[in-house]
């Protein structure tokens, strides 16, 4: 597998190999902890777990733990906790966004309806906290509660902005910080904590993952336009259709003509691509260098993350975290 090949970039497979056994344990914890006394919740949890997410957040917890020292029962538990929180946010997010597809399958709200999914999401959040509580560690709870509030506030801010065309880059970045980067950062911090890191190391790993999280969401927002549904597992063009102006659009609008701007306003107003076809929007974004600029911006964050992780001593885990930054910028789903 070449872990001794100092300085070489690891592949996705090699990263996974480093945490495979631990990840299997994480999956068992999630299965075990997703059994509710009401069948609907158990069924929804199973459906979500088998849906094939990338498990990036648990991987981040485990690699951070290993970098700091080693993985313990606490690391496995925390990796399960962050995936459960992530899953709960997705269940609620799809209700809010009226999304029909997630991970290449019908979204939970499309199958079980909004009412059941709001409650199932609540249950999942609480179960995640229940598992976290077993650590008997107030810092862990403090971090997880602040994080969840931060994410919910992010969704609320996003809701207030739906349909608005004048979104600044700073507004957008605040949202990305709340929605995505804060969870990535928490994953690394929790992993570090469980691995026995001191506070300075925990902070550095948290900052590394924060930069990674920002890049991840920026790439997600580019892929929302440029990918294909079969690859992405969710429909393309969703953000704009849902009334969300993300970074590629913010950049495009900076240099767009008034006719081009009008196209975007049609979609925001109508919630569909009937007056302004998606292909036309894509063309105008291409022509205004929207994707190239957004990708460059994402890379500035992965560069920062890579520089931060390079300060740690060389080890397979340090290299895996560095390779993760590469994978995130180059991913297609
Ligand atoms: C989706 O996250 C939500 C965003 C922050 C864009 P992922 O793309 O990590 O979702 P899964 O878990 O792999 O499905
Ligand atoms: C989801 O944001 C991030 C959450 C914290 C729920 P998005 O709405 O951009 O994610 P997708 O595109 O539905 O996966
Ligand atoms: Mg969504
Ligand atoms: Mg999105």
Radius of gyration: 20 Å
Query: What is the strand content?
Result: under 5%
User: What proportion of the residues is helical, as a percent range?
Assistant: over 70%
What order do the helices and strands follow?
A: HHHHEEHHHHHHHHHHHH
The averaged pLDDT comes out at 95
What is the tally of beta strands? 2
- What best-fitting shape do the alpha-carbon axes yield? globular
Q: Look at the helices and sheets and give the structural class.
A: mainly alpha
Descriptive tags:
binds magnesium ion, 333 residues, mainly alpha, binds 3-methylbut-3-enyl trihydrogen diphosphate, 2 strands, two-stranded antiparallel ribbon, globular, 16 helices
Question: What report would you give on this structure?
Answer:
With 333 residues, the chain is an all-alpha fold. Helices cover 75% and strands 1% of the residues. It has a two-stranded antiparallel ribbon with strand order 1-2. Bound molecules: 3-methylbut-3-enyl trihydrogen diphosphate (2 copies) and magnesium ion (MG) (2 copies). One 3-methylbut-3-enyl trihydrogen diphosphate binds at residues 53-54, 56, 103, 180, 217, 220.
Short description:
With 333 residues, the protein is mainly alpha-helical. Helices cover 75% and strands 1% of the residues. A two-stranded antiparallel ribbon has the order 1-2.
